Amino acid sequence: MDVDASLHEPPTTQLPNPIPIDPELVYGCDEIGFMPSRGAKRRVIGPRNRSIQHQQGDGGRENTTVIVTICADGTATKPTVIFKGKALGQSDKGWTDGEIGVEWIQDFHEQTKDKSLGRARLLLVDGHNSHYTRGFLRFARKNRIHVLCYPAHGTHVYQGLDVVIFAVLKQNWTQERDAYYRQTRQRLTKKNFLKIYGEAHIRTLTKENIKTAFRVTGVIPYDPTIVSDKLAPSKETSSQGELPATQPSPVVA
């Protein structure tokens, strides 16, 4: 009796087609630091025949970190501000660490869960270690938040916040800080930082700017041709991880 040879072949496992994530659920986040006397280069108008013109500034060097999160639909979540200090919501060095990273993603979830209606969200991040702690990834997985990391040395090309938003934000921040000082004669402090930064944030995080950040980096609409080989990070300056041993079939490393 003839037997169909195909019955003796090992069954093939077909992976389900991936479910696309709606643009309104694609987010990008990054950190930006502010110092009292740090800002964009500016022209200072003063008397003629003086070789050096000065604008007085605060001599403080304490860094304040702001985590900015934007969405491909042109919206943004409320920013997270991290002051240098010892209390919760503060950091010894003024930037995010593992504990604050978990606090942040929990807040991100609260701000975006109603919009998601149980659907998966995509969160684009850089390689900072605060994004890859066990607590951070466990919470993300539990709440259907897919975390995708930009390639090493590539945020200046792929990260829309770096490419579009942060340069404008720095400029607006400098203008708001200087205007506040001219009006009040008060130096920048933790007490007035939120007021000053808030004005710059609102001016910068417009729907047009946010959508441009995703478009010019080829994320939404998806266009891999935007980033050419010339712009992409070089292999000489990038790191590539490998598993210590080849995985047996059908697992593909």
From TrEMBL:
CC annotations in GO: nucleus
Region annotation (Disordered) ranges: 1-21, 231-253
Name this protein carries in UniProt: DDE-domain-containing protein
PANTHER family: POGO TRANSPOSABLE ELEMENT WITH KRAB DOMAIN, TRANSPOSON
GO molecular function annotation: DNA binding
Provenance organism: Dendrothele bispora (strain CBS 962.96)
InterPro entries for the chain: CenT-Element_Derived, DDE_SF_endonuclease_dom
Record domain DDE-1: where: 91-214
UniProt cross-references to Pfam families, sorted A to Z: DDE_1
Biased composition, class Polar residues, residue ranges: 235-253
Top-rank lineage group of the source organism: Eukaryota
